[in-house]
Specification:
Elements: E1 18-20, H1 22-26, E2 37-40, E3 43-46, E4 57-58, E5 62-63, E6 87-91, H2 103-111, H3 119-123, H4 125-144, H5 147-178, H6 185-210, H7 221-230, H8 232-247
């Protein structure tokens, strides 16, 4: 996540450590060429001399003036890199509410740490692909008249429904376990749109099963069905966008 200007530099112990809270730490964000501080595991480091923290922004993702204890877990290096920079204080810790986890789940996570964060990212790609495919193959059917395209769209829609249910469940699990069920904006939007898309998909699926030739004519009900299918594109795009925001936040220039 960062690299020091000199590898041999050791972290200097400060006799009278300053105590920072989140508001005080936020003032050292590198703006106007000011000091650049970051925190990790209760320690506050001055990384002003690192070229990779110029102006307080690292890799266009991480802002200075914050506690990066969680962010560094996904970095290509370990926290030992921070020891090359001077420690300038201690971060006042705010005790997070503890999650009472069932014993079996606790043991499972201890044995397979990947289950803490990866189930949702692993499953989220499937509904995106299948819901996109539903729209694309229906459009191909309208353009070419080849019935197999329309049948493939139906199969994609069924798979999209199945994996949307799985993805919603893994998303709720990840939200509970890693975000303590906080009302994070991206999660709130996804929680509203995902069930809406699932309901629309189920309606379209049942409709198509009951009326196999619904798209044969684009008048009346056929046109409404087409609009329903086309709605999957913007909905799944917005859901995917806000999901990506959690992992790859876009910084404003």
């Amino acid at each position: 996540m960062l690299y020091a200007p000199s590898a041999g530099r050791k972290n200097k112990q400060v006799k009278n450590m300053k105590e920072f809270d989140s508001e005080k730490l936020a003032k050292f964000n590198g703006e106007n060429k000011g000091p650049v501080y970051i925190a990790h595991q209760g320690k506050v480091y001055d990384v002003s001399e690192s070229k990779r923290w110029k102006d307080g922004l690292h890799m266009k993702r991480h802002n200075a003036g914050k506690d990066l204890s969680t962010d560094i877990q996904a970095a290509p290096h370990g926290p030992e890199v921070l020891e090359r920079f001077p420690q300038v204080g201690l971060l006042k810790q705010v005790k997070e509410p503890e999650i009472e986890m069932p014993g079996a789940l606790s043991r499972l996570l201890a044995r397979y740490p990947m289950l803490r964060r990866h189930p949702h990212p692993m499953t989220v790609h499937f509904p995106i692909v299948f819901m996109f495919s539903t729209t694309v193959f229906n459009v191909l059917y309208l353009v070419t008249g080849v019935k197999s395209f329309e049948l493939t769209a139906l199969h994609s829609l069924g798979a999209g429904i199945l994996f949307t249910i799985v993805t919603i469940l893994t998303g709720l699990y990840t939200w509970w376990l890693n975000y303590l069920s906080r009302p994070v904006r991206a999660v709130v939007i996804k929680k509203r749109l995902s069930p809406a898309m699932l309901i629309l998909a189920i309606i379209a699926f049942i409709w198509r099963l009951r009326v196999p030739d619904v798209l044969d004519t684009l008048g009346g009900s056929g046109f409404i069905y087409l609009l329903l299918v086309l709605s999957f594109l913007p909905i799944v795009t917005v859901i995917g966008w806000f999901g990506a925001q959690l992992t790859f936040p876009v910084e404003k220039e």
